[in-house]
Batch of 2 targets.
Target 1
Amino acid sequence: MAAITNFEDFAKRILKIVFWLLIILPMVILPLFYIFYVLPIEISCNFNVLNCSQKIDWSLALYMFDPTKMNPLDPTSYISQLGLGATSPLFKVSTFPGLTFAALLSSMVIWYERKLLAKMQYRVGPLYAGRIEGILQSFADLFKLLFKEIVIPAKADALFFISVPFALMAASGALLAVIPISPTNYIALSPYSLLIAIAILGFFPIITVLAGWASSNKFSFIGGIRALYQMISYEIPLIISVLSVVILAGGSLDLMGIVNAQSKIWFIIPALLAAIVFYLTAMAEVERIPFDIPEADSELVAGWLTEYTSMVFGVINLAIYIKLYALSSLFTLLFLGGWQGPAPIPALAWFLIKTLIVMTIFIIPRGFNPRVRLDQLIGLGWLWLIGLSFANVFIAVILRASGLL
Amino acid sequence: MVAEQVEMKKSGPGAARDGPGLSILVGKAKEVIQQAIVDPLTYLANWGRIYSLWPVHLETACCSIEFGAVSGPRFDCERYGILEAFGSLRQCDLVVVHGTVTRKMAPRLRWIYDQMPEPKYCIAMGACSITGGVYFDSYNVLPGVDQVVPVDVYVPGCPPRPEELIDAFLLLQDKIRKQKIR
Amino acid sequence: MSAPPAKTELRQEEKAILEALSSKLGSRITVAYSKPNRIKIIVSPIDLIEVATCARDDLHFDQCANVTGTDFPKDKQIEVTYHLGSIEGAGLRRIILAIACRVPSATPELPSLIEVYPSVNYHEREQAEMLGLVFKGHPNLSRFLLPEDWNDIPPMLKAYRLPGRLEGE
Amino acid sequence: MSIPAEAGLYTQAVDDDKLTVSIGPQHPGAGHFRFTITVEGDTIVDAVPDPGYVHRGAEKQTEYRNYLQSIPMLERSSLTDVTNIIMPYSMAAEELMGIEIPPRAKYLRMIMSENQRILSHLYWMAIQGIFLGHSTSFMWPMGDREMFIDLGQILGGARVTYSFAIPGGVRNDLPEEFKGRAIKTFNHFERRLVDYERIFYNNPLFLKRTQGVGVLPRKEAISLGVVGQTLRASNVKSDVRIDEPYNFYKEMDFEVPSFDTCDTWARCMVHLIEMRQSMKIMRQCLDKMPSGPVRAKLSPQQRTIVGEAYTRIEAARGAMSFHIISDGSTKPYRVKISVPSMRNLIALPRLLIGSHVADMPAIYWSLDYWPVEADK
């Protein structure tokens, strides 16, 4: 690495170190710490290992994630005293239902998406990175991006330019905070968690416009404005489609409560129209093809992402995929009954299976659809989707008033 | 390596003050750091670079249809992590010069190369980009792109078969594998 | 350029075109050759627009397919040939009418046909660049195919030698 | 070497609510070509094409080579369509040399030419897919293209550049296994074309993106002198294969498609139908082909008569014509190529002005503008 000669180099170096910490700390060190240090202590605290056979039962590891099986009053469980146990907020935010879990899942989804798309196109897809079917492809991309030069364009507004990935990551992470993934695995419980999630979704257009403006690039600028148009015109149908779910759930704005209200029937059946509207609007929110208008690569080179390099670009992409994960899990919670399902499969597994299916449905249209045009997209949003979601609100009200649900 | 450093230390100005023991320690520490941190990191960075070469969408001439065939289903270069055509040059690390570079294109090619972030690699595809090919006597064609950008791998052929281009990607991977991290 | 002898008999349409041309314009045109499907006439630059208008309005040649500029250093002239085609004219789709005019190399100026045939726009621009021609009335004769910093004589002139070739090669 | 400070390159010019954007030459939607567009809101108000990034001076180079030596170089001008750029050149050279080629060679030229048409159309279709953001529509035609590349490889001996239709006939005769392989390929690809139509071209989003976009009315299409698919999509049933039949196209039974919608969708459909018709022609050629020699006697330094020849054929992108002036020596005095891409370029600013920014790639590529061919 060249010697530091000016402040710009210094700032870049510092930024690189921050990225390293941000990525390496939650993704490598914390899981290692929990697996090799916390986990054995937890297991030995909660179960009498001596009474068991000498063979290590690895299924016990699953109980680490189940707080009900742990005894917080146990004096030997000093991990929980230190605030580092599996029930501690730090663990939840950084590792399991939080950022690391979502990031790992997202990077696997990137690989899965490329592989799935390749199969649809008579190709093989990533094959050599990671020996087994290119399973480490997104990690190869990650490490390459980590070791790449960060370029800040001369005319760009450096402060805003560099703050965009952090803001996006923060917003996506905040979205994860209110989404419970099983009755016992959640980061934060709130009676208004659905409302909070929708409020956080409102941040994204501001960030994209900021990115487009700060890049000082015409393609970025047009892309940012397009993103603003798209997200604002799709936020309203999204909220109204969620409204009918809230009515069906008896006015509960708590995602836990909504899932519990679906014990008899999944809401996708009475609120099918709302589910379709939510699906389309969520796809527009995460800019998936056919709604990838803000980053349409044949018109605007890469849209609002044009000037972003190396890990800055990587973090933005990761944040977008985390947002995809968050929206698919919202879909699962709102319409597919969350973690509810027949007994032998645990609740967490049910949730993950459903979410992966929803993500696949989000990904697949990329294979057989061209991109739509901005005016067509906005027309679709304002004319059809709002009408459809209102129709579903009436259906929900009627169902609720007649006492059928 | 350690012995050499001891020699150097002894002959240097600080030799009398430090003594040999400390300098051996320093040498050892350097070696340990080299083995424990720098080498794995180099490996990791190079492994990432090998399997994630994103080419710039820069078509200079007719070889681009063979590049299209390489990303097509029969030759599928995504197996090596090479995307078909990437959007912005800011995120790319590979320039494949698809054939002839004319005098009008040459400054643009250099400009594009300069805008890309380090590390970046260049493959000269086709006879035209190596020597000018059948356009050796043309008034508007550069006799070789290495006048404009540094080239890592040359692929002969007019146009090269897709297998040759994939071979060039593999040669480039070999080259990256031997690189020291910057 | 001497006209090669026609191998086969001309058909009805070619004869009609030749007759119409000679009756309308009389001695101002010279027929260079008339082969099946191909007729070439030579006019002077002054009459070019008039002949082209006549070809469009009376003979139904509604588009220009090609413009060729050729340098003849022996005659110190540059020949510009417009190849006109027809879509709407009955039975004319197979016929190409070439209108040629010669301008002196020293002052290579001739009127542009862009008012008559909008399709000559880029063809004329290309030939103007390649041979240093000046098409009077053309809205934009700026650099087209050559690099912006081209600093030599126009390349299609015979006086321009390719850099990779020796004299007489 | 320097880049001039033209509009749209350096300045962030925001005046009168207009924004000048430079598209290309490094742009996923432009290829080896550049045009500057001025946008007002989402509407393009001005478009200025700037070709010449692949201008290699092939016309000048032909003056230094004899008639046979120029062929490989001219071929590179249009790599998706090599036989169709060589064939009019060879026909003009034959006219000037005064030789007649054997009928079997004409049939072989037709087979190769139609094969090239399919290759070019499939490449066109693939890029149209990627320009509309449809990656599967890129991969499928690219994969099926390989089958026809294999056919060309059997007949011509190379993957893309065959130098097949040389003056005096063709380079080699048909190998034995060609016919069986070709029929197999056609049977497979005819089924695939049905799939394409169903999956790609009946997609509602595709229809929304292409119907009513980039309308070029019949009258304007004729006066602008556009050729090929652009002309036929504008409701003109014009094709050099019918207008001025060369080789044996007079004896062939095929249709020339035309649509009266005059839009991008019509241009897409014309490509699709033409591929089907090309296969029909190739089947007929394989059946009707007589036996005999495939090349007339010709010396490499064949002298020509003094005179000129203007030949044209229907290439994959439209009418391709060669104007060769000869001074009686072994080298041509002047070769002028009138390529379909250059003739269609004139329609680009006309169609772009007034359309949406998002329609720009769709319109641009629907004209089948191949910059390498246009710049020569």
Target 2
Amino acid sequence: MKYSIFSLARAALSGHKTWQPTWRDAAPKDRYDVVIIGGGGHGLATAWFLASEFGIRNVAVVEKGWIGSGNAGRNTTIIRSNYGLPGNTGFYELSMKLWETMEHDLNYNAMVSQRGVLNLYHSDAQRDAFARRGNTMRINGIDAELLDQAALRKMLPFLNFDNARFPVQGGLLQRRGGTARHDAVVWGYAHAASALGVDIIQNCEVTGFTRDANGKVTGVETSRGRIGAGKVGMAVAGSSSRVAAMAGLRLPIESHVLQAFVSEAIKPLIPGVMTFGAGHFYVSQSDKGGLVFGGDIDGYNSYAQRGNLPVMEDVCEGGMALIPMIGRVRLLRQWGGIMDMSMDGSPIIDKSPVDGLYINAGWCYGGFKATPGSGFVFAHLIARDQSHKEAALFRLDRFQRGAMIDEKGQGAQPNLH
Amino acid sequence: MRIICPYCGERELGEFTYLGDAKPQRPAADAGEDAVYDYVYLRDNIAGVMSEHWYHGGGCRAWLKVTRNTLTHEISAVEPAAGVGAAKVGA
Amino acid sequence: MVAGAQTHRLANGGVIDRSTSLSFRFDGKTLLGFQGDTLASALVANGVKLVGRSFKYHRPRGILTAGSEEPNALVELRTGARREANTKATTAELYEGLEAASQNRWPSLNFDVMSVNQLFAPIFVAGFYYKTFMWPAKFWETIYEPAIRRAAGLGRAAGVSDPDHYDKAWAHCDVVIAGSGPTGLAAALAAGRSGARVILCEEDFVLGGRLLADGGTIDGLPAAEWVARTVAELEAMPDVRIMTRTTLFGVYDGGTYGAIERVNDHLPVPPEHQVRQRLWRIVAKRCVVAAGSIERPIVFAGNDTPGVMMASAMRSYINRYAAAPARRIALFTNNEDGWRTAETAIAAGLQVAAVIDARPDVSPAHRSLASKAGFPVLHGSVSGVDGGKNGVRKISVALTGGARAEAEADGLAVSGGWNPAVGLTSYHRGRPKWRDDIAAFVPDGAPPGMIAAGAANGAFGLGACLREGFEAGAVAARDAGRSGNIGSMPVADDEAFSLTPLWHVAGKGKAFVDQQHDVTASDVELAQREGFESVEHLKRYTTLGMATDQGKTSNVAGLAIMAAVTGKSIPETGTTIYRPPYVPVAIGAFAGHHRDENFHATRLTPSHQWAAEQGAVFVDTGLWKRAQWYPRAGEKDWLESVTREVKAVRSGVGFCDVSTLGKIDVHGPDAGAFLDRVYINAFSSLAVGKARYGLMLREDGIVYDDGTTSRLAEDHYFLTTTTAKAGLVMQHLEFCRQVLFPELDVQLTSVSDQWAQFSIAGPKTRDLLKEIVDPAEDLSNEGFPFMGAREVKLRGGLKARLFRISFSGEMAFEISVPARYGEAMARNLMIAGKPFGVTPYGTEALGVMRIEKGHVAGPELNGTTTAGDLGLGKMMSTKKDFIGRVMAGREALVAPDRQVVVGIKPTDKARRLRSGAHIIPKGETPGPGNDQGYVTSVCFSPVLDQWIGLGLVERGRERIGEIVRAHDPLRGEDYDVELCNSVFYDPDGGRQRG
Amino acid sequence: MADFSWDVRSPLDRALVAGRYGAQGDVGVSLTEIRNFDLVQVMARRGQAGEMIAAAKARFGVGAPETPKAVSASDATLIWSGPDQFFVLSKGGKHTMESLTPGFAGSASLSDQSHARALISISGEKARAIFAKLSSIDLHPDVFGVGTAAATSMDHTSVTLWRGGDRDGQAVFNLLVFATFAESLWHTILDSAAEYGATIGHSEDL
């Protein structure tokens, strides 16, 4: 049933008894043209693009738990394309454009809200770095504005301008940035992919790969049996190294915990997304009213999916330093997701050295905003066996060649990216 | 998290800095580019017990080898890096 | 209502101080309560039923509970800058002058326009917004979303800076105990007696937990007396600490527990020098969770009507606060425990309208109670509630067997059984396990060192709680290594506990599962219909359990209903992941002292005070405050000041405090060999008494840091780092020393704070130095050549270190004196330099001169550049191994088209160059294909009388003289610039050698 | 020729205001800055830990601390500062770089830290309550007895803390903090002490 206010009204007459499942809960078939491992946003988007753009509909998405149970369901919902380096800039803008049409493409309201993303600066050096980045954006056709303190005082009078250890001096604003309802993105892709015939198989954990005599991947072993595949794509943030290891691969990736927090719901207080430039804190306010915020990763390898107290304190210190009016707002809930941190802070979308296995990994904490773009270019790679031009630099061998895409300039130290 | 520094005793996480997997060894000068690439970039990224380098920079400044489970954060052993005890070599 | 009437205050009883009457305001109305009341109990005592409006439908809501699990009675507490949204009236202590307002309503609680939402309820079902608001696309941000946002949210935050202070503290103990009910007190007794260091945390302001409401007999004493005796015994133990108003909210690795102490929330304003709240990090070897259990509602139509209240909460209001939630009470229970409310009501002289019991049988004792008190026992379920914002009027009952009955009552007590408070035990992703006998989840997979006991562990009888608590306390203390005599265990009888699970009474009308988020039983059914069967999907689709109460009263009912519609069992359906904190905690408390100017520490240079007296403008550089420039009267802007400073240096002499550089003593016989491995260039060959510029790479071949290192003795080097990387380089060098090269005999010590270091620069530097350095010291070019470094004596005998190094390109020295002489040094440099017009200069002038000289700094050492990019590739030794050597040779890092450092100047000399402008070939349209680099550093060069800069430009060094575009769309600028040699000033270096 | 005076200035010169601070009434804590001390870091060379300890014994009559302890000699305190290294804290030029170097030649590397630190002594009934806000380590008397030392952090800044001899029946905690952080940390200490009431002073005596 097409979703609209009219279908809602019609369903209301019958007490909403007429709604069908948002997606079909499929059982595995013997074989698919493509099996995508990972029922998160990236995996489901990949399946949808394979079906809708590349005409490959005999596709399964296998998910070890419930769809969206990984980072798609535990992030801070920010979308933006304010990157500064070749490789990233074009890709994230491709993704941003797909966000802008997603809801109509999927017939699902993912609450894409372009309320702006503002990166604050507190020193001349930071301003210069933002100027460089903002100009890169503009040269790539992406909106960016450099605001000074006077403009910010008008726009966000509640920031700590005058009593701060590191006073806000200005910011880089991308008005088209914003937030989207993370779970709805997952459900929307599942809804639309399922409608095109994609099998979404939950509670189906991949335990190994089947390979032919030449070593080519021919399918996956799962907790629900063997599933044959022409090609296998993995989009398993938080488990990339573990799944790759099943194919004998070691990746330039470490897994780290990133925490996120939400406050109690309050009436509208903070207009868009903003990031503190002198500490680890970024924040937006959800439609429901909670302040959704986060900061730095916990800093050590972890698969524990829970955060530590010092980082929670660090984030709140940043919050109070920037926006001292949130002192009495209460932190309601804390959670942790596992970030697959790559060695240069940028993702890997490439064929793996194992024939038939395609890798989509290393998104660090930037995976959510990439969801539609990642799905599109990964589907392109799988369908055409060739990188999409906007993902051409996300190659696995770039570390061997010395062609890193290191926005932060931290080198092979993932916990610093 | 709290780490029992072999010199200082049990201390709070905030006194330590993390580096990462302690297993990779810096290749010899003539090992070649592939060996160094492997050392610098590739990780086992273990889900389970892992040996790691931590620096007690907020304390005695010793580099430590910490054996820690990345699934539970349980720490089972902490020992000093080789050079910390160098003053006692032969002693 | 007459102020102070307290129409619903009982004549006797209660743990309240009737001699201290407190006046407070709710929605502008002045009311009275007593010391010992919560806001909720005072509202109950005043007969207030309507307290708030619900999240989505704006339905009238009252008070459901008497604790921190409250979903409905949320208020804006206090006013002005101290206004706090969503405060639970059930935990807010009453104080004189308290002001509270209901929230999420307009214009008033009684008449809320937004309650029109109830008319749209047929459409506003779970997830409705995912299916609509998509057309037209641009309406989302402009129309739909703003409307939704305005309607959503609950209370209003203050909107201005929080005026109160917070701090954070650490505590250490053997055993920390969460909860001071019978279980917690018994645990504290056993642990304390065995000699353990104990911290007992109680979120309430009175100790005793459920004993405060339910009483009982322990060791033959009335509960209150036993509590008093026990507390006295605990208080006499020096290592037992009792913390009231303190909630243990989280458990973290290594036995660290988070707790929030509401130090002064019970006062109108914190007393002077005191904090509002304190965040505790409690390090404990063991933890006993004695957090009790939470009574759960039964979902039935109209269950959100003000006046419907948890049965145990009614007992709390009646027994603890002597406040009657209703005068004629009906009770709906599915278990034995609920009956206590009927007993309590009768004992308090209130009427019982009826008891509706879902179980097939009722005990003979209760049957006789009913007949004695003259109320009916109705076997069945509540199917509806008549009433509204003014409270309950009538209860409809569906009797077992199909008949219907009614009961007139102004209050309905509900007991659906008890859920152990499994939060703390589940925060390390342990999943609680289901127990059929009590139809509840109990802790399982608790974090290491944590034991749940008593009601928190599913033991609901008083005797059992004491037993489990005492045992847990003893075990915890023993595990922590304490073995003193624990004495005798407190004893009480166990009450029988029987329950027939009942989650949802099907019927007409909205039946709420999550009252705060307005999630109904039919929303749960709809979620299932649409495939959101996983409990996590259910939670996310309906928002069940995501409100400020974190589903404490709703989660289990929600998943039980889901289990029923899917045909699975409750344990198969499972729970969602439990997330800390156990109660919401103010963000300010997590920040503590670290806000405003105290956000981060501040580092001051040794001459800071002197510079401040000179009127210096300071700039934040990392944690440092550095003098940026020294304005003089009449100068119109910073540029004029900086230009003057630069000119003064270039023509005379100036000095600058450069103490912020990292400084490291490198000692030992292998110090030279060590430096050879960490720098790309050789240091073992450096002569004693000489300095050399060194460049360090990361292991990935990218430049890490640079600085000048001097050899002061055969086995002693003095290494300097950039200001930004000082700590990191020390850490890196220690790693090299301790981990990579343990065979080397080398010792490292940071001496950054030991030395005050000044750069003295300009053609008259030597003249100045001669004034201050002992005349016996030879400062001539021969006696102290360029890159010389040695100790010298100053006039008066003080020893200093002198380095002939130059960042400015002028004849220059850096001089170091022990830091406590730093301020005297600055003053003395002013005195010594007076005849030569000495000028103190700041970081801006320093930066101008380094750009004029083409020296790279932070903007060029940006973590992606190679030695070759910086024009320093030739420094890389080919004769030795060093950190980063191999990776630096990768193809893309030595590619000919890399962006490399080059000088840049606008062709129009009047044009201002700005950092961050991009370099585009002339005549081309800017695009990703021709974005060839950017301007990294700029300054106005007084020497060249124009703006100049450095940039990273593709093949830059091959393109000297080429005119390109500086493209700066952010600032609306686009102009021609010339690529030029990066050394703008004195390219052959004659001045610094002179 | 100009006249130069080489007055020393403590890093707490500006921040320290002698007298009462915070809550009036009982004095919860005394904060005393000790000025103008000599502090030398001694680090054993490779394989020379034993020699270094022997050299310390020869010089001070007590062995260098091998665990986190502070050891009192007649005119100096030896404070553990890390594995195989310690500080020599003294007054009046008795143990300076110059005078210590010959005794440790070959066994240890010496580095002058006299000006790199500020020294603050904290005592009084509420001293532990204040440290609870500053320090993550356990200062319970059973755990942190007289002579115990710790290399630790306060406010994300490295410090050396040790417990000296009791004064008036109260524990005395000595704190070496980095000079350039001293003023900032001092304010943090004052904030922590305000609710208990402090008396503030400085002294030239260890």
